[in-house]
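Sanity check record (used in CI):
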Amino acid sequence: MALLGGFHHVKLPVSDVHKSLEWYRRTLGLEVEIEFVEDGVLRGVALTDPGRTLMLALREEPDRTAGWYGFDPIALAVPTLQALHTWSDHLDTLEISHSGIAEGSVGWLISGITDPDGIEIRLYTQQRRP
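Expected output for VOC family protein:
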C-alpha cells in the first residue's frame, strides 16, 4: 500500500467566489495560486499561505453552499499558543467575530470564525497543553 503524505488541498463551495476570495485574503492572509476560469468567468481559486504549507480551493457553487452554513470543516494549524494570541489580535483588528482562545481537546483553539457563507474556520494549536 502506498503511503499518504497529508492533504493536497481542501475545496469549499462558495456562493460568490470574488467575495469569498477577498475574505480569505484579508482574514487568513491567503493568496491566489491558481485561478479556474470557465467561459471567461472566474469560477474558482486555489489559495495558499505565504509558506505554502496548505492549499484551500474555493469553488463557486451557490446551490451547494447553503448546506455548509454553520459547519466547521477546517481547523488550520497554528504552531504555538503565542501565535494563536497573534491571530486573536489580528481578528480583533479586522473586527472578525470569534470565540476567543479556548482549551481544546489537544491544544488551544479559536472557533467561531465564519466566512461570507457561514462556513466556520477554526485555528488550532499544534502545541499540546501541559
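The chain has one domain: 10-125. If this sentence no longer matches the regenerated C-alpha cells, the check is flagged for review.
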